[in-house]
Amino acid sequence: MRRALGMSLWVAMVSAGLAVFLFLPHFVSDFHSRDLAQAGAFFIAIIGLDLLTGYTGQISLGHGALMAIGGYTTAALIVHEHWRDVWTIPLAGIAAGIVGFVVGLPALRLSGLYLALATFALAVAMPSLIKKFSGLTGGSQGLQFLESSPSQVTGLSGKVTVLGHTMTQNHFLYYLTWSIGIVGLGVAWLVVRGRGGRTFRSVRDSEIAAVSSGVNLAWTKTFAFALSGVYAGVAGALYAIQNEIVNPLSFTVSISILLLVGAVVGGLGSLSGLVLGALFVEYLPTLSTNVSTREGVPDFIYGAAIIVVMILLPTGAGGLLRRLARPLTTWLYTRP
Amino acid sequence: MALLAVEELTRRFGGIVAVDDVSLDVGEGEIVGLIGPNGAGKTTVFNLITRLYRPDNGEIVFDRRSLLRTPAHGIVRRGIARTFQNVELFGSMTVLEHVLIGRHARRGRRAREILGYVGLAALAHRSARELSFGAQKRVELARALASGPRLLLLDEPAGGLNHEEVGELGALIRRMRQDFELTILLVEHHMQLVMGVADRVHVLDFGRRIASGTPGEVQNDAAVIEAYLGTNA
Ligand SMILES: Nc1ncnc2c1ncn2[C@@H]1O[C@H](COP(=O)(O)OP(=O)(O)O)[C@@H](O)[C@H]1O
Ligand SMILES: [Mg+2]
Question: Structure pTM?
Answer without folding.
Answer: 0.89
